[in-house]
Amino acid sequence: MAKPATRQELIDYSLRQLGAPVLEINISDEQVDDLVDDALQYFQERHFDGIERMYLKYQFTQGDIDRGRAKGTTEVGIVTTTGTSTNISGYGTTTSNFYETSNFIQVPETVVGIEKIFKFDMSAISGGMFSIKYQLFLNDLYYFNSVELLQYAMVKSYLEDIDFLLTTEAQVRFNKRQDRLYLDIDYGGINVGDFIVIDCHRILDPTTYTQVFNDSFLKRYLTSLMKRQWGQNLIKFKGVKLPGGIELNGREIYDDALRELQMIKEEMSTTYELPPLDFIG
């Protein structure tokens, strides 16, 4: 069908684009499954419609706090890495031990990127009933026209600058191949049951959101991948004559697919891929 809603329908669509059932597409089922997985992975990692922005809430456990508060070399959560050097003149073999704290939270493998951790502070600037911001609203903005908007905006900007200098943002590290969110924070101020909110990007599961299979980019990309595999399978039969004098030309199919894939990836970079954030300094 022209609008595939399942994995098999997407495969059938791509095969029809290559000429099936009029032509026999010389690709094994195992190769087709691998190509579908590769296409979905590329789509989910690079296309803006392959992910969703999500706010995940996590509650700290006693184990998280124990690992984060670990110190020294023997406490729970301390990981030891050993480095060994040999043939050192006059010393023979030298071994060095390095220690690190397991201050991380295991996140679902569907999370491909983490932007930040939302800050919940109770500083005198912005937290609680007796904060400066609360008193500003309570006293100065009780009447709607009691203060100029420009003055209010300037005061708010000034308070934000003070808050930024006095209350540091939570430093986080994340690698999607580890599925670990490292929190470089003071675990001494964390209690069991406290929550954090994670601003992250999560891939769309095509089995749940079946419209992924009907994405125009994914259909063209998978078709080109299958075309390249088809040509690669036929390259070794170059010059073989079929009944009727037809000659297989796997090299031409392969090169044509490479050109298509190059154009598709360029289109991904310029049209569908989320731009990287700017860094200053």
Head-to-tail CA distance between termini = 52 Å
Strand content: 15-25%
Low-confidence stretches: none
Question: What shape does the CA trace take?
Answer: extended
Continuous helix count:
7
The SSE order reads HHEHEEEEHHEEEHH
Helix content: 25-40%
State the strand order across the main sheet.
1-8-5
Which secondary-structure class do the elements indicate? alpha+beta
Total strands: the figure is 8
Average predicted confidence as pLDDT: 84
As a whole number of angstroms, the C-alpha radius of gyration is 29 Å
Report the major sheet.
3 strands, antiparallel
Write structural notes for this entry.
With 281 residues, the protein is an alpha+beta fold. It is 38% helix and 21% strand. It has helices at residues 7-17, 29-46, 62-69, 132-140, 149-166, 216-234, 250-272, and strands at residues 51-59, 78-88, 92-101, 104-106, 111-117, 171-175, 180-184, 195-203. The strands form three sheets. The protein has a three-stranded antiparallel beta sheet with strand order 1-8-5, with no helix packed on it. Strands 4-7-6 form a three-stranded antiparallel beta sheet. A two-stranded antiparallel sheet has the order 2-3. A hairpin with a 3-residue loop joins strand 2 (78-88) and strand 3 (92-101). The longest helix has 23 residues, at 250-272. It starts with 6 loop residues before the first helix and ends in a 9-residue tail after the last helix.
